[in-house]
Design a protein that fits this description.
The chain has 144 residues and is α+β, with helices and mostly antiparallel strands. 35% of the residues lie in helices and 28% in strands. It has one domain (11-143): 3-Layer(bab) Sandwich (minor pseudopilin epsh fold), CATH 3.55.40.10. The strands form two sheets. The chain has a four-stranded antiparallel sheet, with helices on one face.
Length: 144
């Protein structure tokens, strides 16, 4: 006698497999969304800190014999020479809609020591987390 076995999946096995894949996928979506939001915030923070360091360095180097700074205009961070409103030179970083920046209006470095008139605390906030950048009066930058 020959034994005939059919190869393949039953409809029930296929439905269970698809349901498990769907369940696992739905469980990872919130994690993935939080991860992407955090990645976006960290990237924006990196760009902001780079712009602050760059303006501080340009002021310390005496580049252009002027004021260098960083300010917020609408949904952008502007790195500038001279003034935020009428810059001689500027570069802009777009702030994603999911990020709120507080504590930053206009930071300018006017002397060759890279110092500020007073300390500044900048906060970048998303729905899930917050990061703080502090700049002390001597110009030291800390990320928390």
């Amino acid at each position: 006698m020959m034994n005939h076995h059919k190869q393949g999946f039953t409809l029930l096995e296929l439905i269970i497999t698809v349901a498990l894949i769907g369940l696992i996928g739905s469980m990872t979506l919130p994690f993935l969304a939080r991860f992407m939001e955090r990645l976006t915030r960290e990237s924006t923070t990196d760009q902001l800190v780079h712009a602050i360091y760059k303006s501080q360095q340009y002021a310390m180097d005496g580049k252009g014999n002027g004021v260098w700074g960083v300010c917020v205009v609408a949904q952008t961070v502007r790195f500038y020479q001279d003034s935020c409103a009428t810059p001689i030179t500027s570069e802009e970083i777009t702030i994603p809609e999911s990020i709120t920046i507080s504590g930053l209006t206009d930071i300018s470095f006017t002397n060759r020591r890279g110092e500020l008139l007073s300390p500044v605390t900048i906060t970048l906030t998303t729905e899930t987390d917050t990061e703080t950048i502090t700049i002390n009066q001597a110009g030291g930058i800390t990320r928390l």
